[in-house]
Structure formats: C-alpha cells, structure tokens
Amino acid sequence: MSLITISSNKHYVIEIAPEKNRAYLKIIGFWRNAEAVPNYIADWKKALDGLKKDFTLLTDASEMKTHPQELRKLHEEAQTLLLKGHVRKVAEIMQNDVTEMQLDSVAKTTQFPKKNFRDRATAELWLDEA
Fold first, then answer.
1. What DSSP character marks residue 95?
2. Which of 101, 30, 111, 39 has the alpha carbon at shortest distance from 70?
C-alpha cells in the first residue's frame, strides 16, 4: 500500500491511501491554539480531493496531549468536513483515557461514526470489514 502525504508537521500528519480509500491522521502532542495548526482544515480539504465517497479514516491519537477547549471547534469543523465528504467509518487509536473522553465528546456532537481502539492492527482490521 502506498501512502501519499498531504501534510506532515510537528502537530499532525495527514496521509491518504487512494487504493484503500482510506485517510490516516496522526495527532502529535499538544496544540496550544488554532493558530498552532493554521492549515489543518485546508489540509483535510486536499486529502478529501484524493478520496472517494465512503472512505475510511484511521486516527492515531496515541501521542496526543489533551487539547484546550478552544480547539474543540476546530475538531468539530474537521469532522463536519469529513462527514460531508462521506466518511463511512473511523477508527481512533488512543492510550489515554482523558484524550479518549475529549475526542468522544466531540464525536458525539458531530455524530462522527467512530470506534476506539488501543492498537493499530485491530483498528485496520475493523476498517477493512465491509
């Protein structure tokens, strides 16, 4: 499987695998505010250009630190964008219960179709199911 990197910086990596119709997001560390990730939404728009309807998403939040409340709107905006792009299902990998609660809360607001996992292999298998 070949991955195309849409963006890679100290806060996140967004990649797509067109033949699998899957996007990959790795959230890294602490995002102080929206200004720390000025291209986040634009990068997602670029990623969507390379994906078809009913794509899947694997989010790796295992290195994410809990984000301040003001970033909630940014995450909601990104999720709404992905929903409009017809994401079918989302697997999120996380190791931290506080991060998990924060991301679950945002997903509940946007009705994001996600399931939480502790390891990548299990998450990929679940996404590969029809």
1. S
2. 30
DSSP-based three-state secondary structure for 130? coil
DSSP for 7-73, written as a single string:
EE-SSEEEEEEGGGTEEEEEEEE---SGGGSTTHHHHHHHHHHT--TTEEEEEEEEEEPPPPGGGHH
pLDDT, tens only, 72-125: 999 999 999 999 999 999 999 998 888 889 999 999 999 999 999 999 999 999
Tokens of 2: 């070949």
Beta carbons of 24 and 18 less than 8 angstroms apart: no
H-helix or E-strand spanning residue 123: helix 120-128
The letter for the amino acid at 87 is V
Residue in 79, 68, 70 with CA at minimum distance from that of residue 25? 79
- Pairing type for strands 87-93 and 114-117 reads parallel
| Both tokens assigned to 72 | 């909630």
Spatial contact of 33 and 51, defined as CB atoms under 8 Å apart:
no
